[in-house]
């Protein structure tokens, strides 16, 4: 509760001989306020998934879609994940929320697969605390069984920095997930500190180059060099490359020349709600 958290904050402050400031009050309270709202939001089913297509460059076709969670408040406001995922991460809420996200993404994808889009794969972002739960692999297995989605239609996106927290544990979990029949990609690649020797040991199928590099590939020679190096390294390790944050025709041209496998970004499409994504599929639009 708010009072307990305030007391804890005050005690922590005293023990560290820190000054107890009004700013700390405001921050702790704001966090608690969001936490309580999130708890209600979960019960009231206020979360929605949007889907952003990933396009295969060789064919121009939509081959997969990333599920991105949004919080649709009763007043209509749409809250982006950057605001509430970190709060959920700091509390036990990420457990049920992550489970809901995975289930919703698998259910929706099963519907798309059953209506004839059998080539599609859904990519679900997994947060740190979720991945580190001891029974994470069993949870994924349970969701697949409950929703009836064939594992080949599921991909998990795990950030580079998260994979590096406990390398041996990560390799173990990823191997078990791979054995279930799904595939894994490394999200935000380039922003962490993976060593190449580890990369080789991870049972992953793709690297997603972080949008911060892609943004400047046509204007910043360093970013262009970094992206080229990542793509050729990935290909030498038999990994596919997905570039995120592709916003312009120039970005696209550059990535085509490098023979990057897939792109994702506003140039082709913003994240869409399920209805709009279905329309996109029906339209057959390609790159
Ligand atoms: P991410 O996984 O790296 O997702 C990419 C983010 O970039 C998304 O923001 C997406 O909307 C945005 N984006 C896509 N194309 C472009 C583009 O061309 N230009 C620009 N400037 N941005 C683009 P979003 O949806 O706000 O998500 C932000 C982050 O929140 C995600 O980064 C991911 O780390 C996290 N997140 C989103 N959904 C979930 C979820 O369901 N579970 C977890 N654990 N984390 C999630
Ligand atoms: Mg992602
Ligand atoms: Mg990403
Ligand atoms: Mg990113």
Characterise this structure.
The chain has 287 residues and is an alpha/beta fold. The protein has helices at 2-15, 22-43, 81-90, 94-114, 128-132, 136-147, 160-163, 167-180, 196-201, 211-214, 221-236, 249-257, 274-283; strands spanning 47-56, 62-72, 78-79, 121-125, 154-159, 183-189, 206-209, 240-243, 262-263, 272-273. The chain has an eight-stranded mixed barrel, surrounded by four helices. Helix 1 (2-15) packs antiparallel against helix 2 (22-43), helix 4 (94-114) packs parallel to helix 6 and helix 6 (136-147) runs parallel beside helix 8. The longest helix has 22 residues, at 22-43. The mean pLDDT is 91. It binds ligand C2E and magnesium ion (MG) (3 copies). Residues 187-188, 208, 244 line the site of one magnesium ion (MG).
Name the descriptors.
287 residues; binds magnesium ion; 13 helices; alpha/beta; 10 strands; binds ligand C2E
Write the layout of secondary structure elements.
Layout: H1 2-15, H2 22-43, E1 47-56, E2 62-72, E3 78-79, H3 81-90, H4 94-114, E4 121-125, H5 128-132, H6 136-147, E5 154-159, H7 160-163, H8 167-180, E6 183-189, H9 196-201, E7 206-209, H10 211-214, H11 221-236, E8 240-243, H12 249-257, E9 262-263, E10 272-273, H13 274-283
Parallel strand pairs: 2-4, 4-5, 5-6, 6-7, 7-8, 8-9
Antiparallel strand pairs: 1-2, 1-9, 1-10, 2-3
Helix pairs in contact: 1-2, 4-6, 6-8
This protein binds ligand C2E and magnesium ion (3 copies).
One magnesium ion binds at residues 187-188, 208, 244.
